[in-house]
Amino acid sequence: MADGPMVVLSDESQRTSGEDARSMNLEAGRAVAETIRTTLGPRGMDKMLVDQGGNVVVTNDGVTLLEEMDVDHPAADMVVDVATTQEEEVGDGTTSAVILAGALLGNAEELLEQDIHPTSIVAGYRHAAETVTEVFEDIATEVDPDDTEVLEQVAGTAMTGKGAETAKDLLSEMVVSAVRAAVREDGTVDQDAVDVRQFYGASIDDSEFVEGVLFDIEPVHQNMSRDLDDANVLVYEGDIEVSESEVGAEASVGDMADLQGFVEREQSELSDKVDAIVEAGADVVLADGGIDEYAAELLVEHGITAFRRVDDDKRQRVAAATGAERVGDLKLLTSDHLGHAGSVHERVIRDVTVRRQADHESTVVFGDLPEEGIGTILLRGGTEHVLDEVERAVVDSVGVVSAAIEDGHVLPGGGAPEIEASLALREEADSVEGREQLAVEAFAEAFEDGPRTLAENAGHDAIDALVDMTARHDGGDVNVGIDADTGELVEMFEDGVVEPLRVKTTAVNSAVDASTMILRIDDVISAGDLSVGGEDEDEGGAGGPPGGAGGMGGGMGGMM
């Protein structure tokens, strides 16, 4: 052993080190950004994703694209995480964040070719990120939760380019109304209180905001009332059926009397459960499990409307809206556990005809609720793909309006903050010593990639746009950005293109975290088995290289 190198890796392991590993990772990260680059902006293009089952998704939403794509590279996954973080924190700006990460990686690769050490690049990037955050905070404009005009502009900006333009004003107004109603006493927004539902048919212009909870499950019995006032609501975490011990037991029936006694015992058990509901004073029951036919008939006799197999999200939403306490044992049920709804009624959403037989699609609405701020945005649209894209746009808008209300600050859109930050970074670079100065300048150049892409996707000359924007910002016009429709430079607040401060700061932080983490990797090892704790290879564990690392030598390694 003293005469040769010690071998510590198995024969199945593959290892890529040094410049090769770093170059491979940088290439993979940049490839993710290039994939979605053309979707940026109000005039960005859509992507069609088709899975193995033939299901089609048409969208230009960054996080949706990256989640649907088959990304098969560990470094690429880190860039995908940028979009995921952005979506979770704000709800919009995912494409911008990924494009910034890709630009930072591309510029870092050029610095590496100049023999700049990765640690110097990382230090420069982090210094630049702090400077950018300060710049954004300096140029941000305050917004009040009552300033509905600006908030609607924030909502509309998030929707632009996502298939909702034809009804942007209507949808923005609904989003702002819904979010403002969901503001808590501490100033935060309960986004779970804003539900978004879609029904096919009609046009997007027929969308509306419904105060209350929409519930598309039919009552368990056709004779149960669909129109109740002042209803006490029970949210039951169980079923109204014969217990499993009774159902599973073997019974030996000698004569009809024994059979009758067996049936009576089952009915007696069900009657006891219904009696507990009646005694508590419930008018509406939402059950987690099934409801026996005999129990359903008893509930009808007592004028109680019941729904069975209601999923957890719906039960939780109704419980929160009505003030009900979820109950798991009917023996412990009291009136204190019940919630209240001023009205519970069926609403026909649209009439349909199938094979010449009239039918309708309807939903049950829990309205006049004690908990204020509970509402549902009801979206309409002609096709499934259109509605799906509009729903993504509305959900993004809910996130950005919530962020604007919670933080109280907004920024101009159209690439204005990026140009302002780029100028500040170039000035800051003069005060940075050593090779970190080059990294700060590279960061400034990366920030220009967003406005450049915005202009390119809109069909305008990117170089002219950048030169003109830089000159205007250098002259003090900090809110000037590019109008994607005309290519002209306009004052973004006057043009109604507004974004929350959090969209930009989160994008910067996420992009810097991902790019610097990739830069610090100088060794990639594809292990045959990464199971932890001595697990047998044949029983799971990791079962192979992370993210297909065994094939990483081929660039993206089967990204899509």
TrEMBL record:
Superkingdom: Archaea
Give a yes or no for keyword Nucleotide-binding in this entry: yes
Task: Return the Gly residues bias intervals.
Answer: 541-560
Looking up InterPro entries in the UniProt record yields:
Chaperone_TCP-1 (IPR017998), Chaperonin_TCP-1_CS (IPR002194), Cpn60/GroEL/TCP-1 (IPR002423), GroEL-like_apical_dom_sf (IPR027409), GROEL-like_equatorial_sf (IPR027413), TCP-1-like_intermed_sf (IPR027410), TCP-1_chaperonin (IPR053374), thermosome_alpha (IPR054827)
User: Any keyword Cytoplasm?
Assistant: no
Read off the PANTHER family from this record.
Answer: CHAPERONIN
Q: Which UniProt keywords apply?
A: ATP-binding, Chaperone, Nucleotide-binding
In terms of Gene3D superfamilies, this protein maps to: GroEL, GroEL-like equatorial domain, TCP-1-like chaperonin intermediate domain
Which NCBIfam families does the UniProt entry name for this protein? thermosome_alpha, thermosome_beta
Which species does the entry assign this protein to? Answer: Halosimplex litoreum
* Region entry Disordered, spans: 1-23, 531-560
Name any one GO molecular function.
ATP hydrolysis activity
Q: Which family does it belong to?
A: Belongs to the TCP-1 chaperonin family.
A Pfam match: Cpn60_TCP1
Give the Basic and acidic residues compositional bias ranges: 12-22
> Which protein, by its recorded name, is this?
Thermosome subunit
